[in-house]
Automatic annotation (TrEMBL):
The organism of origin for this protein: Propioniciclava soli
CDD domains per UniProt: AAT_like (cd00609)
Key word Lyase present: yes
Keywords, comma-separated and alphabetical: Lyase, Pyridoxal phosphate
Chain ranges of the Aminotransferase class I/classII large domain: 35-342
InterPro entries noted in UniProt: Aminotransferase_I/II_large, PyrdxlP-dep_Trfase, PyrdxlP-dep_Trfase_major, PyrdxlP-dep_Trfase_small
Protein name as it appears in the record: Rv2231c family pyridoxal phosphate-dependent protein CobC
Cofactor(s) this protein requires: pyridoxal 5'-phosphate
Keyword Lyase: yes
PANTHER family reported for this sequence: HISTIDINOL-PHOSPHATE AMINOTRANSFERASE-RELATED, THREONINE-PHOSPHATE DECARBOXYLASE
Domain of life: Bacteria
Any Pfam family hit: Aminotran_1_2
EC number(s) stated in the UniProt entry for this protein: 4.1.1.81
Length: 370
């Protein structure tokens, strides 16, 4: 468990993307399909104040819970600010490496945050979490590691007197396979949400970062605490409509198909990386539209040298538990992944040559962007 050193918790992947570079830093699809864009409405529909009733009902039906267990938010990241302000934990604990906004929100709220740093390959060990933690935050699948923790292992963190917050922003890419919200057992029934808050997003799957639409499903008493922190009309009409549309059977079927294609594209990326000398441990491969890899073998300043050759990747050193040797790479089409792996492999060969020739650094070579 750790409280130091400090990290740039406010750094996000969009800051690593640059015009003219192939963007492997941001985990967004290129944009919503036409039917979803149309569902956001047009200016005449935006005159009235937003009403979340329909969105809450649609999301409640999707997850098989009462509407009182659902809270729309202006993006999933906003939910962590509501948690920090509403729950007021005395011993909050964040399991890292993971998305940094939960810890940043807790710190802004004046909390003293304890960190649990998982070692590679970053699989969850519930025994590492202090027994007295009254708030525990975990990502699943975890950003940036890509690890998909089995649902039973996540449930092992629950206990009386503790609030468990699970960031499932990427769970639709994992076919909902480890979600604490389902799939429901045969015969239906409401999931046990006692002490649980699950944060979900429509940004990643549907390419709607600018709309700001997310939601929380959980213990209705906790949902009420979070709702009390919201200002009136906090979620816009387009955001609410995006939430409603994302909960339809059509959207769920399309999301499943996208996740299947992402599985194939991720497998192509992993194969190309392994061929270039950068294998990714199996535990870090199953559940997200990105992969995390240790790029030590490519030599120093790997991000800058990749940028010189036309690729932007997400830096690792802003995540507690990682350092500059780690980079996160978004899953793209197989051709892009193969091109990236060739460039990374070339950097590795340069590093080997520099080491064997006795130089303490990698000689910079001008090359065509690839």
């Amino acid at each position: 468990m750790s409280t130091a050193p400090s990290f740039d918790l406010d750094h996000h992947g969009d800051a690593d993307a640059s015009p003219g570079l192939v963007d492997l830093a941001v985990n967004l699809r290129p944009g919503p399909p036409p039917w979803l864009a149309a569902a956001l409405g047009t200016p005449p529909d935006w005159v009235a104040y937003p009403d979340p009733t329909a969105a809450k009902a649609a999301l409640a039906a999707r997850h098989g819970v009462p509407a009182a267990c659902v809270l729309p938010t202006p993006g999933a990241a906003a939910a962590f600010t509501l948690v920090a302000r509403g729950v007021r934990a005395r011993r909050p604990t964040v399991v890292h490496p993971q998305f940094t906004e939960p810890e940043a929100a807790l710190l802004r709220a004046g909390a003293q945050v304890r960190r649990v740093l998982l070692p590679p390959p970053f699989t969850l060990d519930a025994a590492l979490v202090p027994a007295d933690a009254d708030l525990v935050v975990l990502g699943n699948p975890t950003n940036p590691t890509g690890v998909l923790h089995p649902a039973e292992r996540v449930r092992a963190l629950r206990r009386p007197g503790r609030v468990l917050v699970v960031d499932e922003a990427f769970m639709d890419f994992a076919h909902e396979s480890a979600s604490l919200l389902g799939p429901r057992e045969v015969g239906g029934g409401t999931p046990d949400l006692t002490g649980l808050l699950v944060v979900r997003s429509v940004t990643k799957m549907w390419g709607l970062a600018g709309v700001r639409a997310g939601y929380v499903v959980g213990d209705p008493d906790l949902i009420a605490l979070l709702a009390a922190q919201q200002v009136p009309w906090e979620v816009s009409t387009p955001g609410l409509r995006a939430l409603s549309a994302s909960a339809t059977p059509r959207a769920r079927a399309e999301a499943s198909a996208i996740a299947t294609r992402t599985d194939a594209d991720r497998a192509a990326l992993l194969s190309a990386l392994a061929g270039a000398g950068f294998p990714v441990p199996h535990a870090m491969t199953p559940g997200a539209p990105f992969v995390l890899l240790d790029a030590t073998a490519a030599g120093p300043r790997v991000r800058e040298r990749l940028a010189d050759r036309g690729f932007a990747v997400r830096r690792g050193e802003t995540f507690p538990g990682l350092g500059p040797e780690w980079i996160r790479v978004a899953v793209r089409d197989a051709a892009t992944s193969q091109q990236f792996a060739r460039v990374l492999g070339a950097l590795r060969r340069e590093a080997v040559e520099a080491s064997s020739s006795g130089f303490g650094h990698v000689h910079h070579q001008d090359s065509a962007r690839g």
